[in-house]
Amino acid sequence: MSQNEVAVNIPQTLDPVYSNMIQIAWKDDEFTLLFLHTIPGVNQARAKAIVTITPTHAKNLLAVLQRTVQDYETKFGKLGGANSPEEVQNVTAIGGYS
């Protein structure tokens, strides 16, 4: 294993979750991502996971997601979706919380 590789141990008790909505809050030293599952026909969502990361990690995540989506689209074709921040659906940004 090289210095850049990390052995990942996933406990058998860790269940995968499905999320179709995300709320993102940030402040000077962290970003918090709240992964939600909205229930069709009912005006409510259930929190599935909360993940807090540093601003640097958030920027790295953005770059990796952009590259990964680009690779996906190369293989499977262009995705529909937002062309600008104003068109984003099911993601809410809450800035400067304390």
Structure description:
The longest helix has 22 residues, at about 55-75. The protein has about 100 residues and is of the alpha+beta class. Helices cover about 20% and strands about 30% of the residues. It has a four-stranded mixed beta sheet. It has a domain at about 20-80. It is globular, with a radius of gyration of 16 Å. It is built from one helix and four strands.
Q: Topology of this structure?
A:
Blueprint: E1 21-27, E2 30-38, E3 45-53, H1 55-76, E4 91-95
Parallel strand pairs: 1-4
Antiparallel strand pairs: 1-2, 2-3
Using brief descriptors, characterize the structure shown.
98 residues, alpha+beta, 4-stranded mixed beta sheet, 4 strands, 22% helix, globular
Provide a brief overview of the structure.
The protein has one helix at 55-76, and strands at 21-27, 30-38, 45-53, 91-95. It has 98 residues and is of the alpha+beta class.
